[in-house]
Specification:
The complex is a heterotrimer of chains A (329), B (355) and C (382). Chain A is mainly alpha-helical and 329 residues long. Chain A contains 16 helices and two strands. In chain A, strand 1 and strand 2 form a beta hairpin. The mean pLDDT of chain A is 79. Chain B has eleven helices and twelve strands. Chain B has 355 residues and is of the alpha/beta class. In chain B, helix 4 packs across helix 6. In chain B, a hairpin with a 2-residue loop joins strand 9 and strand 10. The radius of gyration of chain C is 27 Å and the shape is elongated. Classes of the chains: A mainly alpha (329), B alpha/beta (355), C alpha+beta (382).
């Protein structure tokens, strides 16, 4: 399983880079956690002596060298202790709450949309190359690639407000926003999630349509397609069975890049559409220099991406026998 | 095309009931850069149980002819004229119905029943003629079950038997292998097994040995001959290798730029070639008996791009017997020079009349 | 390989075997690339549009009607002004003066035209003073009005909350946004060519390490990292410092695709016969690389760079849009869009979204141009 080992190595590398950046972001603003915490305490009327400050620094390991602090922070992160949000004066874990899972839900819905759209359209475009439909999809695809998704979100919002008088922002109807989780709330979520999923997915869909189209065009020219045709198979039957199956592999491997791309884009689209995901929270934390919260969110997004990418790698290994048997493609 | 283009008459055939009879086949590729006439009025017959060799340099329309017969031309290729008369069910019943494959919908059910069922194809690239993500068995069994009503287990048994017949060692294991796990020779054997799946009456072998090394080539040719003896199918062997033709073919068709320039029994081609192109081809075969140091004859120039087809006889710019004012004006008609031996050249028959 | 018909001129057939001659007029690769590129109408049109963008950026102060930072609360959120093309005397483009009032019910400012104040539009009118190319002092502008100061009465695309002219700001934003793409791609290009070249030429362990780094960088969700890093930039930095910091940030993740292209070309070329031939004929390693290999893929690099620029423009726009990128008084498309972040603004003052138009047009144009270049880059394929 040389292939999987390599992917695992990349996953670890990615986590390392993200965690160092996240840690740096926490450390960059002047002052440390204790300075900030003392500020919080004093604002609540609690006077803190210098001795107590020093004791606290010792207690939190802030006098240790930087790399020790980094590993302590990383250990805490993976054991679920995310520290304290200065702005909300509550543990980061509570502040984030459901938002992480809603972020995952939006990203997953978007990935699903990308696949469901790009696969058939890409196949159609390749098999009917230079047809009207192919040109039409290519044009829409180019628009999808060129319009940054936050601008698309703005435009969609403007038109839905202007012509339908509705606000497409958010993930829930007002009555469900603060309601506890229930079947009805999930249904309400599903009724709202498709708009951000599509807005987020257009760019990825356009990219994948082009990848699928190019790959399939390559495959369609290969002799095994002619061989299958010469066996008397019907056109669509054989296209779906052979070249599509082969072209699916490079397609599947792109999910490793599509997922980070979508998660990345979801942050900013969430701000525009004011979705209850980690995106707006991250922006607010950064603007307020609430770095524990910001660093944690960045780290969570990174971890989520790595897990998503690993899942797609597993799928890829299952799909492609060449990886199973030879360890490379 | 020259304005005075004259359709060739079908060559006189010795056997009145050929398995496949191609008449004035014309296949065009309307490309953006211009119309490519890949096959321009080719005519020949394939007799049941016999091997016909189709020979010519690369780009002479040999493969396009084969694909026209099977109805699997690459886009935007299209058969625009002529007939492809194929006798169906020839194996069971010598007098089966004759269908014109050129008139059938290439994706229709009848064409698909013929394709793979009665006419099978083996071609050049054993490397990529199997899907890399499916096992050999999947593709073999698919061919079997597509044309025969058998269960999966039965198809697998037949598949293993076919692999055994084509000389694949350990067929029980190899049937579950992926093509990239097999050597080139084994892959071509597996390919032949797939082609045999439905017991075709005609096997089209398009350069079946070109990509293989010399020893494997000989083995594959032996295998084809052996299978022909056992199953009694006709073979249409497409090659540029005259050695293979000499060894395998009963009849030979020589093509140049989409035209059949000469067709004859194999002996006549080798011992009494008529067309200057056939002669040039024969001269370019290396011979062991030639004195050492003798230069091998080559044909001057190369096959012109189909976009700039020369007017008249397409071979005239390279022809040693070029007759100005005649050969570059129009295409000579087919002339019968002996029983079953036809040639299209002004050197024979109608020269005086045309001048 | 096909040879384009206009490059080939065949002599009439020779009469003797062995002397068939063909004469070729040799076309240089550059010509071939240009011919192929020219066939992509969309790419050529995109190239022209982009030239227009950069010309607009260079001549921004000349084209602008007011200074980008000139604010005036009295004319906040004016809608775009209609130009009246005709009057009683025929063709005579003019605008009317407007007066702002507060709607007593909604408390919104509304602007009404005053038909008594008619300002004619003239070419090459005098307006605010500026230095063209930061050198040549001037106060001539492409258009201006007579009867009032242009920068106090002409607002072609309306004004923003602070009463600044959106049209003029858009031109100055073009300077910043379009140049960030170029500067960013230079940095990316340097990184990409050096690392991709090393990776592709040396192969082995070095290649493996660089490839893994690229894969890691590509699987990072970039926007949150950019956001975090941009937010950590010191508050006291000057506009210029922030500009470069943002550019560097954006290019840190942008070089991977370029490196991939360069490495791929290197790997492919290493196997090519002409490179082997060059080596066998005793060319030194640098000579092999720079004389034989680099020219044969410089066109690919140009194409890949062109495709990387829109990424940079989008990244800067996104960061500034969130308020983490360039800060006022700098003005870029993203900075301008920042005011269109919420539904109220979007619904009531849609003209503030106008900066989205050049972003989309520029990004599309760069993509089409890059695609055309990429197709043309290999003049000998197909």
């Amino acid at each position: 399983m040389g292939y999987f080992l390599r992917r695992l190595l990349i996953a670890i590398g990615t986590l390392a880079v993200v965690s160092v950046v996240a840690f740096a972001i926490i450390q960059l603003p002047p002052g440390d956690f204790v300075d900030a915490y003392v500020g919080v305490l004093e604002s609540m009327g609690d006077m803190v002596t210098e001795d107590r400050e020093l004791a606290m620094r010792q207690q939190y390991g802030l006098l240790e060298p930087m790399y020790v602090q980094y590993f302590a922070w990383a250990r805490d992160f993976f054991s679920g202790d995310f520290g304290l949000s200065m702005e909300y004066k509550r543990p980061v874990r509570e502040v984030i709450g459901d938002r992480l899972w809603l972020t995952v839900a939006v990203a997953a819905a978007s990935v699903a949309f990308v696949w469901l759209m790009a696969l058939p359209v890409g196949i159609y475009s390749a098999v009917r190359q230079y047809s009207f439909g192919d040109y039409a999809f290519t044009f829409i695809g180019f628009l999808g690639l060129a319009v940054p998704n936050f601008l698309l979100a703005l435009v969609v919002m403007y038109f839905s407000f202007r012509y339908f008088g509705t606000n497409v922002g958010g993930l829930f109807s007002p009555e469900y926003v603060d309601a506890p989780w229930s079947f009805a709330k999930v249904r309400d979520l599903l009724a709202h999630i498709w708009i951000p999923a599509i807005i987020l997915g257009t760019g990825g869909t356009a990219a994948l349509i082009r990848i699928m189209r190019a790959n399939l065009l390559d495959e369609l020219r290969k002799p095994y397609v002619v061989a299958a045709k010469a066996r008397g198979l019907s056109e669509w039957g054989l296209i779906l069975k052979y070249p599509v199956r082969v072209a699916l592999n490079p397609f599947a491997s792109t999910i490793g890049y599509i997922f980070p791309y979508i998660v990345s884009g979801s942050i900013i689209v969430s701000v525009v559409l004011s979705l209850p995901t980690v995106g707006p929270l991250l922006l607010r934390a950064l603007l307020a220099q609430d770095m524990y919260l910001a660093g944690t969110i960045i780290m969570m997004i990174g971890t989520m991406t790595v897990i998503g990418t690993l899942i797609s790698d597993v799928i890829l290994v299952l799909v492609d026998p060449r990886i199973r048997f030879t360890g490379h493609r | 095309m020259p304005p005075t283009h004259i359709r060739s008459k079908p060559p006189v055939s010795a056997d009145p009931t050929p398995l496949l009879s191609v008449r004035n086949l014309e296949t065009h590729f309307p490309l953006d850069e211009g119309l490519v006439i890949a096959v321009d009025g080719a005519s020949f017959d394939v007799q049941p149980g016999k091997t016909i060799g189709i020979v010519g340099e690369s780009g002479c329309g040999k493969s396009v002819t084969a694909r026209s017969i099977l109805g699997i031309l690459d886009r935007p290729g299209k058969v625009v004229g002529g007939e492809i008369l194929f006798r169906r069910g020839a194996k069971e019943n010598a007098g089966g119905p004759v269908v014109d494959l050129a008139k059938l919908d290439p994706n229709g059910s009848e064409m698909r029943a013929v394709r793979g069922g009665e006419i099978a194809l083996v071609f050049q690239e054993p490397m990529s003629s199997f899907s890399p993500v499916h096992t050999i068995g999947t593709q073999l069994m698919e061919a079997i079950r597509h044309h025969r009503d058998v269960s999966k287990a039965e198809a697998r048994r037949i598949g293993i038997d076919l692999l055994y017949q084509v000389g694949v060692p350990n067929p029980e294991q190899r049937i579950d292998a992926y093509s990239f796990q097999l050597s080139g020779g084994l892959r071509q054997r597996a390919m032949i097994a797939t082609a045999l799946a439905a017991g075709p009456s005609l096997l089209i072998a398009d350069e079946p040995t070109t990509a293989l090394d010399v020893t494997t080539q000989a083995q594959i040719l032996d295998l084809l001959r052996e299978l022909q003896d056992r199953h009694g199918m006709a073979i249409m062997l497409i090659t540029h290798d005259l050695g293979v033709i000499a060894e395998m073919a009963d009849d030979v068709v020589v093509m140049y730029l989409g035209e059949v320039v000469e067709s004859a029994p194999v002996d006549a081609i080798f011992h009494d070639p008529k067309h200057p192109y056939t002669r040039a081809l024969l001269q370019s075969i290396p011979s062991i008996t030639a004195p050492a140091g003798e230069k091998l004859a080559t044909i001057a120039g190369s096959v012109p791009h189909p976009n700039n087809r020369p007017a008249g006889c397409p071979f005239h710019p390279r022809c040693p017997s070029f007759m100005p004012g005649l050969c570059d004006r129009r295409m000579p008609e087919a002339t019968v020079v002996a029983g079953g031996h036809t040639v299209r050249c002004f050197l024979y028959g109608e020269r005086a009349a045309a001048a | 390989m096909t040879v384009r018909p206009e490059t080939v001129e065949e002599l009439p057939a020779a009469t003797e075997m062995g002397v068939v001659e063909e004469r070729f007029e040799v076309a240089t690769p550059r010509q071939l690339i240009w011919w192929r590129f020219r066939r992509h109408r969309l790419a050529v049109a995109s190239g022209i549009i982009l030239i227009g963008f950069y010309l607009a950026a260079m001549f921004a102060p000349f084209l602008a009607t007011s200074e980008p930072t000139k604010a005036e609360a009295q004319r906040s959120l004016m809608p775009p002004m209609p130009i009246h093309w005709f009057d009683d005397s025929g063709f005579n483009p003019h605008v009317f003066g407007t007066a702002g009032k507060r709607d007593p019910k909604t408390f919104k400012r509304v602007y009404v035209e005053d038909p008594n104040k008619k300002y004619e539009i003239h070419f090459f009118a005098r307006g605010f003073a500026y230095k063209l190319f930061w050198l040549i002092p001037s106060n001539i502008h492409l258009i201006g009005i007579e009867g009032a100061r242009t920068d106090e009465a002409l607002f072609l695309l309306g004004t923003d909350v602070q009463g600044r002219d959106v049209y003029s700001r858009l031109l100055f934003a073009t300077q910043v946004s379009m140049s960030i793409g170029l500067v960013g791609v230079m940095i990316s290009l340097t990184l990409g060519v050096v690392l991709g070249g090393i990776s592709g030429f040396f192969g082995g362990f070095v290649d493996t390490v660089i490839q893994r780094v690229i894969e890691i960088l590509r699987s990072i969700p970039t926007i949150p990292l950019w956001m975090g890093l941009a937010a950590s930039l010191p508050r006291e930095w000057s506009v210029l410092q922030i500009y470069f910091a943002i550019t560097v940030l954006v290019s840190i993740f942008g070089w991977t695709e370029l490196a991939r292209v360069v490495r791929g070309r290197f790997l492919a070329l290493r196997e090519e016969d002409f490179v082997t031939a060059a080596r066998l004929s005793g060319a030194s390693r640098p000579r092999t690389i720079f004389r034989h290999m680099v020219p044969s893929f410089s066109s690919h690099i140009i194409a890949a760079s062109t495709l990387a620029i829109p990424e940079m423009i989008i990244a800067e726009t996104a960061l500034s849009f969130l308020g983490l990128g360039l800060r006022p008084p700098a003005v870029s498309y993203g900075v301008m869009l920042q005011s269109a972040q919420n539904i109220q603004t979007v619904a009531t003052t849609p003209w503030l979204m106008v900066a989205a138009v050049p972003v989309i047009v520029a990004v599309l144009a760069f993509n089409f141009l890059g695609d055309g270049l990429r197709d043309a880059a290999d003049p000998y394929s197909q």
